[in-house]
User: What shape does this take?
Amino acid sequence: MAIANYLYLSAILFTIGAVGVVIRRNAIVVFMCIELMLNAANLAFVTFARINGNLQGQVVAFFTMVVAACEVVVGLAIIVTIYRSRRSISVDDASLLKR
Amino acid sequence: MLIAPSLIYSLIAPILIVLGGALIGVLVEAFLSKAHRAAVQITISIGTLLLALQQLWRIRDLSSTTAAVNSVTIDKAGIFLQATVVVLALVAVLLIADQENFVAQASAVPGSNEEKNSLQEKSQQTEIFPLFLFAVAGMMLFPVASDLITLFVALEVFSLPLYLLAGLSRRRRLLSQESALKYFLLGAYSSAFFLFGAAFLYGYSGTISLSGISAAAGSANNIFLLIGIVFVSVGLLFKIGAVPFHSWTPDVYQGAPTPITGFMAAATKVAAFGALLRIFYVGFAQEQTLWRPLITVIAIITMLFGSLVAIAQRDVKRMLAYSSIAHAGFLLSGVVALSKDGLVASLFYLFAYGLTTIAAFGIITLVRDSSGEVTDLNRWIGIGKKSPLVAGSFAFILLSFAGIPLTSGFIGKFAIFSSAYKSGYISLVVVGVLSSAIAAFFYIRVIIMMFFTDPVNDSVSVVIPSVKSRISIIVATVISIILGLMPSLLLNAATTYANFIK
Assistant: This one.
């Protein structure tokens, strides 16, 4: 049952991403961790498509790639604006809202 | 062999019209001179929303599961939820049209000469209107989506514009940009959870449609189903701001431009609860033993947490943010009820709560001093003596949030809790009533501050709103009052329309 290994890999990638979002402080790195999580979900979709023997999972993977690209556009726009006004993209420095 | 997809355009016309309006809005940005843009954009936004509402009225009795090749299910509850989103958007767009609240040029660094110049030129960032329409289209698609791809795409289509809109406040721009960053990072994080859960639901059932997931009940891979339900729920519970996925709510509500906060608080809840109701009522209804205890616990924690933490807030927008968290808990009781009554109550509650919320944030935009909006509650002392009408409306809205009889909030809460009671969730009812009592404390404290405390010598004043804001606030408040006095108008409609096609 070698195909199950892809699911384990997907779970490991997802966990690395999820932990990374929580512990890393650079907004760009946090963002990369989120992309890693999306790709882990993609891997799971493709693996399940193979296990289930239909194409729907692979179609979802394509949609996810497009959506992830849109997310990059919006995300980088926000991060660049923050950098221009603060000269820092650390998520710890962005703490005006905590009192 | 590929089969050409067939779309029933007449049924998805409302969504397509709003998307079309948004695209025209983008073209207007490219081709029209600066001076005319604002007026044209406002006209396009209002026009498309009215047209969409008219189309929804036309298809009000139709239903189909194959409106867009099994991806979209148009049914009565779906049409009701779409109409709710469009009505809320119509009320909110008039507030958003008041450009006083939005940044003159989003790309200019706060405090730079570039920003000062653009303020002097009175330039406006009119891109907010297409972004707003894209968000509305996503919110209309989300509650009628009936497969996992469409759900995910709709989730992103309405979230991405909102992340940007949150960062476009005219004043306190650093705060606003920070709230956009927080909203974006946490929102993207939660949608990754949603997608991972969707993958496991697909692995469990071998299909991405909700009805297919429901039909696969009893298959052997229950662990996949459990992972799927939990992760998909995390993504959705984040959007509605349920504890423990609420941490973005107060920050984003406070930082975002106030009209956007109102729109987001009202319409996002409708869309996300619509999708949540459809997923749980249609997709997971067979597996209720797995998720009902889980959602019950989250509902209880959410109600108590929202009500208790709101007491300590000193900022009116943050207070309303925690109050919206508590309301998310009340609404979750309707999801747990898993009955026709629960659905009727949720539909009524979403409409009534949405309108009241937009009115509340609309009024907050009116209380200003020389540097912009005043959201510090201590400076709201004595507003009732400066402007009895505005303060009176705000007091009425707070009473409606608190669920005092003769307001729409009371009817909504009563319907939700009685549906939870009928389904045997007495614990939810007890905690719900208890947290409503706690919540009433801080709502009434604000009313006392406004009316019964002597005003300090302060520069805070209630500005006379522009015609558009005035229409928006008056319409929202008047409908809230009518719904409180004659709830049967909407309750009957909600009863007729509370039906998901499985």
The mean pLDDT of chain A is 90. Chain A is about 80% helix and 0% strand.
